Amino acid sequence: MRDLKLFIFVGISIVLLNSCANFNSNILFKIPKKSSFAYDSIPLEPEEDFRLAPGDRFNFLFGTNNGEKIILNQSGVSSESLNGQNNSQLNQMRMQNQNNQFTYLVRQDGKANLPLLGDLVVAGKTILALENEIKTLLSENYIRPFVQIRVTNQRVIIFPGKGDAQVVGLSNANTSLLEVIALAGGIRDEARSNSIRLMRKISPTKREIYKIDLSTIEGLKDAQMIVQSNDYIYIDFKPRLASSILQEIGPWLSLITTGLLTYSIITP
Asked: Which of 79, 113, 134, 245 is deepest in the core (most CB within 10 A)?
């Protein structure tokens, strides 16, 4: 009996030690204690416009006469205003214009292959700068060209507390931090609304890190912070100790209990 008690004690100790080793093993971006790390100042708006980078995808709308035909095709105007074109022709033109919005990839060399223009360096340029450059190049052969560019794969990665991470697409250029959190399903039960970290890429090898507290009304200002494509948003979480430990050691306790019951049955 003494040996059995010793065996049980050692077994439970091993289980607890193994559980402690796995405890909080899913925490990311932990800052070491006594570190000299300091958070950066929170910018409510991006310090500069978004710049295209390798891996980005975009499409652009093109038309002559400052986009006159684009407006006519999309507006559904009557046939008389289009020199006698019937409505079926108008609808066909509108559908063709929508289908012609192809997507173009910014390659690793910073270039994109565009119709009429061939390979063009686009990485590092803002949307407005690229639109103006394409207008200038097309104006050599077209009258008052109109160009509108839209990036199609802008997104942020969010870890909303304990749970599944999500990639949230940015459908507009002024998406706030609070809107992104809402799109990801809000803050989880175990998440800490007073400890949100946003990591923003400011160069190919560096990110600034901002700490945001949304637990009080004073955090409403920071909640309106405009996010940028490729931001990482991590919400710290406070694990429930009792439930986590029970979840870890539950199967082992069940095994030990079964063993004890079997032993008591077979022991005279």
From this structure: 134
Structure tokens at 225: 């912070």
Q: CB atoms < 10 A from the CB of 180, how many?
A: 22
Interatomic CA distance for residues 185 and 53, integer angstroms: 29
- Main-chain dihedrals φ then ψ at residue 155, nearest 5 degrees: -160, 160
pLDDT tens column, 76-106: 554 445 454 455 554 554 554 554 567 899 9
Q: How far apart are CA 42 and CA 198, in angstroms?
A: 9
Give me the domains of the chain, ranges plus CATH numbers.
Answer: 57-151 (3.30.1950.10), 155-237 (3.10.560.10)
Edge-to-edge strand ranges of the sheet holding 206-212 = 166-169, 155-159, 232-237, 191-203, 206-212
Return the structure tokens found at 101: 């919005």
Question: Do residues 180 and 227 lie in contact, with contact meaning Cβ atoms separated by under 8 Å?
Answer: yes
Using alpha carbons, select from 196, 207, 253, 197 the residue that is nearest to residue 230: 207
pTM across the whole model: 0.65
